Amino acid sequence: MTSWKEKLAGTVREDWDKEIDVFQTQIELKKQGKIEDRVFAETRLRRGAYGQRYDNGQRHDGFETKKLAFPTTHMKGPETFFDAPGMMRIKIPFGRLSSHQLEVQCDLAEEYSDQILHVTTRQDIQLHFIHLDDTPDLMRRLAASGITTREACGNSVRNVTACQYAGVCHTETFDVTPYADAIMYFLLGHDDTMDFGRKFKIAFSGCHDQPCGLTNFHDLGATAVIKDGQRGFRVVVGGGLGAVPHAAPVYAEFVPEAELFPLAQAICRVFGKLGEKANRSRARIKFLVKKLGIAEFIRIVEEERKNLRPDPRWTAFLSDLHHTDETPGKPGSARPASGSAEYLAWAKHNVRPQKQDGYAVVLVKLPLGDFTPLQGRGLADIARDYGAGSVRLTADQNVIIRWVPGGDVPAVYARLAALGLAEPGAETISDITSCPGTDTCKLGISSSRGLAGELRRHLSVVGTVPAAAEDLHIKCSGCFNSCGQHHVADLGFLGVSRNVGGRRVPHFQFVVGGEWTNNAGNYGLPIATVPSKRVPEVVDAMTKAFAAGRQGQEKFREWIERIGKREVKKLVDPFTDVPPYDVDPSYYSDWGDPREYTIGDIGVGECAGEVVSFVEMGLSAAERELFEAQVALDEKQAQRAYDLGFRAMLNAARALAREFNPNVADEREEIVAEFKKHLFDTQLFFDKFVGPKFAHFFLRAHEAGKGDGSADAARTMIEEGALFVEASHACYQKMLALRAPAAGAPAAGAPAAE
Amino acid sequence: MIGDKVSVKLFAKQSLEAPLESYIPVFHQWIRDAKLNELLIDVADYTHVPRGIGVLLVGHGSDVAIDQGEDRPGLLFCRKRALPAGADLLTDALRRAVQAAELLDADPAVHGPKAFGKGEILIRFPDRLHVQNDEASFERARPLVLRALSEALPGATYTLRREGEAREPLTIRATA
């Protein structure tokens, strides 16, 4: 075999295979300089290929900033070198991975990454230090196992998350898994999700009280509800963490299950139309909801809902809500009450009974969300041998194995111990969540992982943590984007920097009062800023004070509220000082990084993606198809070249027509009709000098049908197609210019309906 | 054909004297001093991962790590991007692994001389497109591996043994 494409032929879904072919072509076109940096950046982000720290070609070595001499000067985005290692984010819908899928990811980590798999706070897997040239093969191998990386990054609908206990949880109203699964694929690549100014995150929860789904800080959160015997969801919209956290207001207390998808589609369309595009820091839907007010937002969405073209996918999945059910491999059995001291210490927090008698969920505590390929294969085997042949990733950056017969729990413990994965204390204070921070993230300010690693070590020492504080949650974010979800921890830490005596010192804002339960019901507030190196002392002071001052079964948040922030601050204040550099230089470097601390390595983040409108993406696709048409012609495939040439025109025409009617389907007759109505009859598409000439190329090609299969016909189609796509670019510029005075802010990608 | 990628691990003769974390500043210094004659990018701290890759010096074409796999520390060299045509993949990797080990031996910040031995070497070919962990691949690789060992580490005679499961990369343990 000479390529993975050849080796995997016939095993990859046809549409996914085609998408990956397209991406591979786009990479080649980028190397040839035929795709603009910005467009390519958003293109690769929508395929899950993210940038990483230092990809701007420079790095501070502790003394000075030095150039990184990558082998080529090709770029893969604005200020982003093509050869720089990047991160691959792999969407795992609701965190479920079959054993086989997990094994595939292990293979990829071994062959393309740094032999580490990282679980994110949104139930994704991330692989780091990957070369972009390797990504098409990586995507093919994932696709062959039923996983797509499409829209894992960029301004798109990101991974759809759900509580990891869905289907086995004692408190759930019903299993939300089939809904999360179906909406993930319904919105994947949906036209109404292509025009966002920022990302859009969806989460499902089976019940209101527990934290697992974390619906309250999502752009769209759906919590299972039954009303009058009918299934539905309590829907919240416009939540988010980031620099300005928002608790999502309630859109509706009850949305019937059959209405959930059209509602989500209408919300996406409104976000695409009215959401902020120019100011990236205010482009999440939470700002739109706040600006309009929830009542007006609901009114607009309901209006848009009426305009949607009915789609059978809205309800098709309801005919079989059991397609995501899991089948246990073994009959249930009772869990033994005795065992070694180590086993019992582990089982205390790492095993939970399922609602199904005789079965347990085993929680595998991953240090900072990381595991090795060897460990991953071991987990896959355990899931096969004892569970239902799958695992789920959690927002706590752990892995769980469900459907373990109670009697087999000790055997599972032994297998985990052999893998080095039997660390006790899952979901306790030593099970710390952290975003990548300065380790790999371009936006990282302080080393959240370094801090989390240090706190893990510190809190794992027996006797360090008072019993009362054992169940607290610590979460660390490396910057204000809050990927570590520090706002909803008992003890949250947010990376910042401070200037001390002319030098930068890594610090963390200390955030208290957050609530992890009730689907992340409350956000904490910062009360002090502490040098990184003193954070462990702060944690000790807080846990000891809580243990000493707690009344009854008072929760940490309740204790904070009772004693007041002023008292809390007094506890922290002794740890805020930084000694001068010549007294203790260790304060001036970060955890796990001996270089003198700097913020000079912070780059331009890609969390926001590039704002590239649907039209721009459509025109880029048309150009790529013209290129493929030329390749086909060179390869003597005249009819294919002809078809691709016409397809390019269709793509360009549809992209423009959707600016007027977002319902335009990807169907030839409809595209032509809409193009005539909005662009030809209005003469908007006409060229200043040659009038309707380029539009006629398209309309005549449509009337001509398939062509005669000759190379001449194909060549003519490609030439006319190229002119039509150029004219489409010109037309789009004209549309933007016409729109600018009314909108008051001329910007590419500005919404059409303002 | 044994692919474009290979990793070579030289095992520590005994447990390392210096804590794993102490390799982090050493690798940062290597970046600063451009020690390995290729583009070095960053240092990744995986000391928290049991039996993981420990401390990783990330380069463009290859990585170097103080690996904790098998619960046995060792120096791991990984070739991840193709070498120029004509260069022998494994010979180059073995030489570079030895070079990195010698650099560490000479650094008093981590340990004394000759911490990493050459008597046992774990060689893996993480390229499942071209090579599987099976007897046929092993037999195909055997002469290439023996030749590379004799060229990079002259004076020693090695016996080879294939290890691991079929789903793992082709894994060969060379013992002098």
What do these coordinates show?
The complex is a heterodimer of chains A (754) and B (176). Chain A has 754 residues and is of the alpha+beta class. Chain A is 38% helix and 17% strand. In chain A, helix 14 (448-460) links the parallel strand 20 and strand 21 (474-477). In chain A, helix 4 (99-112) packs antiparallel against helix 12 and helix 7 (260-274) packs across helix 9. The model of chain A is unreliable at 742-754 (pLDDT under 50). By secondary structure, chain B is α+β, with helices and mostly antiparallel strands. Classes of the chains: A alpha+beta (754), B alpha+beta (176). The interface between A and B is large, with 50 and 38 residues.
Instruction: Using the CA coordinates, give the radius of gyration of chain A.
Output: 27 Å
- Structural class given helices, strands, pairing of chain B? alpha+beta
- The end-to-end span of chain B amounts to 25 Å
Count of DSSP strands of chain B = 8
Question: How many separate helices of chain B?
Answer: 3
**Helix fraction of chain A?**
25-40%
What's the topology here?
The complex is a heterodimer of chains A (754) and B (176).
Chain A: H1 4-7, H2 14-31, H3 37-45, E1 49-50, E2 58-60, E3 65-67, E4 75-77, E5 80-81, E6 86-90, E7 96-98, H4 99-112, E8 117-119, E9 125-130, H5 135-144, E10 157-162, H6 177-187, E11 200-205, E12 220-227, E13 230-237, E14 250-256, H7 260-274, H8 285-292, H9 294-307, H10 313-316, H11 341-350, E15 351-353, E16 359-364, E17 370-371, H12 373-386, E18 390-393, E19 399-405, H13 409-419, E20 433-434, H14 448-460, E21 474-477, E22 491-500, E23 503-512, H15 517-520, E24 525-531, H16 535-549, H17 556-563, H18 565-572, E25 589-590, E26 593-596, H19 614-634, H20 638-657, H21 668-680, H22 693-704, H23 711-743
Parallel strand pairs in A: 10-11, 11-12, 20-21, 21-22
Antiparallel strand pairs in A: 1-6, 2-3, 4-5, 6-9, 7-18, 8-9, 8-17, 12-13, 13-14, 15-16, 16-19, 18-19, 22-23, 23-24, 25-26
Chain B: E1 6-12, H1 23-33, E2 40-46, E3 54-59, E4 62-67, E5 74-79, H2 89-105, E6 116-125, H3 135-152, E7 159-163, E8 170-175
Antiparallel strand pairs in B: 1-5, 1-6, 2-3, 3-4, 4-5, 6-8, 7-8
Helix pairs in contact in B: 2-3
